Amino acid sequence: MTALVPLPPFQPANLSVRELLASYVSVLDELRRRDLIRTRNSPLGDLAESLALRAYGGALAPNSEKSYDLLTPDGRRIQVKARTVDVTDRRTQNFSALRSWDFDTALFLLFDAATYGLTWARELTRAETKALARADEHTASSRIIVRDVAVAGRDVTTIVGAAYERIDEPRVEPGGLSR
Length: 179
Fold this sequence. Notes:
With 179 residues, the chain is α+β, with helices and mostly antiparallel strands. It has one domain: PvuII Endonuclease, Chain A (3-Layer(aba) Sandwich), CATH 3.40.210.10. A hairpin with a 5-residue loop joins strand 2 and strand 3. The two termini are 22 Å apart.
């Protein structure tokens, strides 16, 4: 095995705003090339969906699918929601809004905002998710508060965490093909 040569430290404070933005785009392009994200939006949602795919298997839904993000080999439709949280921020924080209930399971992932480390992962049935939801009439959606999910459903942090540990390995498709 070839020893890794350490790279010089990345020093964003020394870069102009335009250089920072160009670096950000380059990072997103590389994450897309590695098949970890699908869009140039904030990578959090795509990362969460990629982790769900690696943890559960199956196929990601098309980006236009509003009801679920992953179809598992056993036919479950999983809605994936992710949030980064600064541990020093004590304000109430929500996952992104739910606008459809046409899923079987919701997978909620919480990441540390400073490191993108996985804090926890919780799997909830549609009924459990609905019980936590708070209607938002203004957006015709439902909000889910992070602290409510933290103790709900089934803890799947170990499963999703193991997928995160393997994030740099090629994803193996059914039939043994690597991506």
